[in-house]
């Protein structure tokens, strides 16, 4: 099956019953209705984590006036999300050894502490800024579990014909939170140019700060409710596994890391995922700054970002459901998605350079091209995750997705790091997005897919 694929001998060893177990039948599988409750709680926590992470980008003009932030400050606030992935090995070890409940409880606690920290209404501006940065960093620490554990949850709780759909829902709700912040922020927090001419600047800044504080209090309350929900009831796994793959023995933590890093096919597909998704995450985080030279208002930029992510989430669930019904088509789906992303990002980049290309640059064109970018790239995330797991099975899902999400956030972090130095003219950021899509498409064309986990569920369980 290629480098890093499991052999027949490995499959037999993993499926062999322990001495204390009976020989018949090898696996009793069952699905529980409570799986939807588990998926809902996990997804809502991902929603809130995404909202807090992307809170400042859509209202960067308001934040500049209210707190004296610079564009570099906004880039750093977005950068705390990728920085939170620095201790990702620790979170993946916790997920592998202690299960999903312990990992999610710790992540929800970090989110609660971060939301509380940034909501403290101190008057000292310098201290206020440090508290906001600290809160964003603590929220970023929840990222490794929230963005990596979706496939682990789907394998643990859902049958094979629902796994890709559950992965899509669990994974894309974090993106949905980022989309919600594009609307909630600009709708609740007024832009500086929305104030009346007779209003003094001091009163205007005070009003903006009050609105920002209101949104932060609301997010803190929602996170507190979800933390209590996880504390009261969130089992790590069902009493009986839903499939053969969920019941099978997996590689150890150390063996999994070594196997992933030595598997060339996995490294290929990991780069194909990390580069475009990492670039678009940083690009969307500062979309307001990207569209400002095109004379797009803060409100319009928020709606463009919202619909681009919403389109990706909806289309991602639809394509995941399609992948559940027609097995063995993951690579083809991804190739079509990345081809669409390459064309739409090229269109958007050239439109933003209308003074040179003389292409029409209207709000409708910017809406359309940007929404298409979000649809094609964001909807590819759950399909990529399923292909990762099929490629490197029997490596545990949490460890596999932890590695690739770390790589994606590493790309985002590098992009935002350069943005702190080159934030005056942002056309280079659009070219990075276009180049990342083309790079991923070329890598996918040379990738040879395999379906080890699907083989186990379809053939061994028969």
Helix run count: 23
- Major sheet size, sense and barrel closure: none
Radius of gyration: 22 Å
Number of strands: 0
Mean pLDDT: 81
Which bin fits the share of residues in helices?
Answer: over 70%
Element-level helix/strand string = HHHHHHHHHHHHHHHHHHHHHHH
Explain the overall architecture.
It is a single chain. Residues 1-25 and 194-203 have low confidence and may be disordered. This protein is globular. It is built from 23 helices and no strands. Helices cover 75% and strands 0% of the residues. The chain has helices spanning 8-15, 34-53, 60-67, 71-83, 88-98, 100-118, 125-141, 143-148, 150-157, 163-188, 201-232, 244-247, 253-262, 264-285, 287-291, 298-325, 330-352, 354-357, 363-378, 380-392, 397-419, 427-446, 452-460.
Summarize the structure.
The protein has 462 residues and is an all-alpha fold.
Question: What keyword list fits this structure?
Answer:
462 residues; 23 helices; mainly alpha; globular; 75% helix
Task: Furnish the topology, listing elements before pairings.
Blueprint: H1 8-15, H2 34-53, H3 60-67, H4 71-83, H5 88-98, H6 100-118, H7 125-141, H8 143-148, H9 150-157, H10 163-188, H11 201-232, H12 244-247, H13 253-262, H14 264-285, H15 287-291, H16 298-325, H17 330-352, H18 354-357, H19 363-378, H20 380-392, H21 397-419, H22 427-446, H23 452-460
